[in-house]
UniProtKB/TrEMBL annotation:
PANTHER family: METAL HOMEOSTASIS FACTOR ATX2, ZINC/IRON TRANSPORTER. It holds the Pfam family Zip. InterPro entries: ZIP. It is found in: Membrane. The lineage of its organism: Bacteria, Pseudomonadati, Bacteroidota, Flavobacteriia, Flavobacteriales. This is ZIP Zinc transporter.
């Protein structure tokens, strides 16, 4: 299935780039900013409209807030990998097990709504793909550029973390097939909260000395523009 292939490819490609270009922290940061502009646009133009037009009779805003809170809890495990904060921590601060659990849960939940995604290669799917690339870049840089890894073959725990992260969203998608389709708006609301938190933190992080960062603004605009183009040209008639 093309969806599963793209999900896995986005992680593998990001890790590969991180392994060989991971020392260029500016590149990782720029990729994150670009993806954040893309992600917040997908969230506001694709995810939230589906959530708030669903005829559930429930206040789905509570589930959006739950997604925000869930992501805050997960960041206690990942130490802000999603925001590019890996360089603030040494290997002793981030336990591979905690990192694995945090990233797996994060990606697993994002994959659940794909089970009932009727739009094929939807903007929601591309949002996850664009989101996976910079996170995987950072993951690859952290796991394979450490002193104990760079001079030897990749260790089993590092490869296991990459494999689990790559398979997390497809596994969530598989589990989603067993849920009642009427629950789709609730899962989308939770993921929307996760997307909103991650993208807003990246975009609105304070600039150095609070100066205007034109490159950052340009990258956000580029990410927003790409998402808007995808929204305009995607068939929403289903």
């Amino acid at each position: 299935m093309i969806t599963v292939f793209l999900l896995i490819l986005s992680v593998v490609s990001g890790v590969f780039l991180g392994k060989y270009f991971g020392k260029k922290e500016k590149l990782a940061k720029n990729l994150l900013i670009l993806s954040a502009g893309f992600l917040i646009t997908i969230c506001l133009n694709e995810v939230f409209p589906q959530v708030y037009t669903a005829e559930t009779g429930a206040s789905l805003g509570i589930f959006v807030i739950a997604g925000v809170l869930l992501q805050m809890i997960l960041e206690a495990l990942t130490k802000g990998f999603e925001h590019g904060h890996f360089h603030h921590h040494s290997e002793h601060n981030i336990l591979p097990a905690a990192l694995m659990v945090g990233l797996f849960i994060h990606a697993f939940i994002e994959g659940i709504p794909l089970a009932n995604d009727e739009h094929g290669l939807s903007p929601y799917l591309w949002g996850i793909v664009f989101h996976n690339l910079p996170i995987s870049f950072i993951l690859g840089a952290f796991l394979f550029n450490r002193k104990d890894e760079s001079r030897s073959a990749p260790s089993y725990p590092s490869l296991m973390i990459v494999a689990l992260f790559a398979l997390a969203s497809p596994m969530g998608m598989l589990l989603g097939n067993y849920f009642d389709p009427d629950l789709q708006p609730y899962f989308l609301a939770i993921v929307g909260g996760i997307f909103l938190h991650i993208s807003s933190v990246i975009i609105f992080e304070s600039n150095k000395n609070h100066n205007i960062d034109w490159l950052k603004i340009g990258l956000v605009i580029l990410g927003v523009s790409l998402a808007l183009l995808m929204h305009l040209f995607h068939d929403h008639s289903h």
